[in-house]
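Sample 1 of the test manifest.
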Amino acid sequence: MNEFELIRRFFARQPVSRADVLTGIGDDAALLRPPPGGQLAVTSDLLVAGIHFFPDADPVSIGHKALAVNLSDLAAMGAEPAWFLLNLTLPEADERWLERFCQGMFGLAREFNVQLVGGDTSRGPLAIAIEAHGFVPEGKALLRSGAKPGDRIYVTGTLGDALLALRHRRGELSLSEGDLATAAARLDRPKPRVREGMALRGIASSAIDVSDGLLADLGHILERSGTGARIFLERMPLSPVCRAHLPEAGWDGVLAGGDDYELCFTVPEMNIAALEKLPFAGELRCIGGIEPDHPDQRRCPGISRQPRRRE
Ligand code: ADP
Ligand code: MG
């Protein structure tokens, strides 16, 4: 199978067809119509076999995750996903692998109505780079830089589950079959918080997605906003599985792990009432508040900040 056949068979036919895609796959460039008055949010993420995922991982999960991490970045901007590009290097044209990869990627694409509009394909070590584009109304994007002292800090969902699954696979701890299934779903098939991000426009003062661990990512908000923060361990949202394994896994796994793909965001007091009216308000947890920056307090005793985890 040559490159053209591969593109035609696996990528040219796809489940999403948007009216704002004037020319998708098949010409030298895609022609797209952004909405009038909207701003374009653009992001990309590179996944390399052996670094970001196990080379023998389920291709459905690889396809899902490659798109999910990009949609999560758009969610953290409050953007509505629209289009994406796929740059792929493959050691060989393994049809079964490609079918399953597409199943994972297009399954998520369908869920969020985001259309594949182009990319590039080459032989090489397995690596997947996706670039995703989304829309946000003028001036409404959620930036990292908007947090102010007095704002409350929230997270969606629960933290720490994905790292448990990773540590099980690395042989660092042992989960029961049921616990592993729950944790592995978080690691392999993260659900980007797109609807939440869009609903937080006009309510949150800053936002980020938790891809490198809460401390690191909240740290980016604090750095860009020039503030400090106080967070409370006892308020951390933990799943039953994570809570059960906390004694052996430790708080590092919750705070300095990664791959949670939840949103961490700040909300000024005057917007709390609006926040509490959101349909997913029950899934949000206030974990602390923004404070003025105290350079002498920039340490978290007992918690080591880890660089971005690689598998
Ligand atoms: P060019 O030589 O101009 O780069 P290609 O032969 O690489 O063109 O690609 C032909 C068409 O297929 C283009 O529209 C391109 O965007 C699309 N395409 C190539 N690889 C992929 C891919 N992995 N996913 C989606 N579209 C792709
Ligand atoms: Mg090309």
